[in-house]
Amino acid sequence: MQLILGLVKSGFLEKLVSRLDRVEPEEIHQIVTRLIQEKGFLENVFEALQEGLIIIDPEGKIMFLNRAACQFFGITPENSLGEKISSKIRGIDTISLKRSKQAISRDIEIFYPEHRMLNFYLSPIDDPKNQELPLGQVMLIRDNTSSHAETQQNIESERLNALTLLAAGVAHEIGNPLNSLDIHLQLLNRKINKLAPGERKDLTEHLKTARNEISRLDTILKQFLNAVRPTTPSRSPHDLNAVLHQTLKLLEPEIASRNISVNLELSETLPKALIDPDQFQQVFYNLLRNAYQSISSDEGLIEIHTHSTETDFLISISDNGTGIPHENMGSLFEPYRTTKSTGSGLGLLIVRRIIREHGGEIEIQSQPEAGTEILIHLPHTAPRPRMLPAPVIDL
User: Fold this and answer.
1) What is the pTM of this model?
2) Residue 242 in this model has a pLDDT that exceeds 90
């Protein structure tokens, strides 16, 4: 703050010092009071800003930071003032700040205390007496997380529209030949069955391989179409806990074979949800399968929680598996992007599409080697338009 006052009042203080010997004590008291009041006024202005503000001295040390900057980077004035900014904000190079004589605008992604997309504008504070060395730097930080998310949603929407158009062509160009191949292989199988046992063995093996590959291609095609083709949920009131139990029953043999424990904390007062039960069984199936496939230890644990607020259902599925690397978190919902050796990369894309068609949203939190938590937010009813009150106009 001393740096700010020095910049704002440098001309005033020079005049004051030049005539200090002629100033009466009462006038000095008034001047000091005025400076204190103006210092408090400036601090209040800076604290009211939604943008983060940091003042840096020529050595790259933090001289002032407002409340918004503290919230963005998870720091406090007590442990930051007088410290080099590079030690408090990763990715900021103090040496580059010293050498920079021009304004800098950069985007930065941070993961703590919250995942945010920030833009900071850094401008040098010129010293009228020394043009070579600035008095310091002013850093203004804006939170672009929401606009970045909106841009990503637009990109994703355009991508899905392109995939939907592609799906129509794929269904015709690949689906029909696959059906034709399967029919001809059935005819071939009938003729092979009429051969002598010695001649039949090798041909039967080759035929089995061909039919398995056709079946695999057909499965991939159906997964692709289910992932991108718009569908309208057939909604009716259903118990989410019951759908979870049904899904767990389907997966019980494989979960038990891996010695994985399942801990259920399901709300007994959960109201019925307006959902498509088949689609939500697919959601739970994909998420639970991902959970137990990520667990490699003998003490595997999957925890499932359900809860209800006044407006939403909250469903949490967490595991103590290998977790997801930070560099993969941004591409989880991209088609055909998977960390599994045998995965199609369409599971999470299908899950999010179904949840969003029900008016909900999915949130994923993960740490490498510490596990993953999936949180589903689902509204009690389909969202309805709300009439806003007419604005009051003073004439």
Assistant:
1) 0.48
2) yes
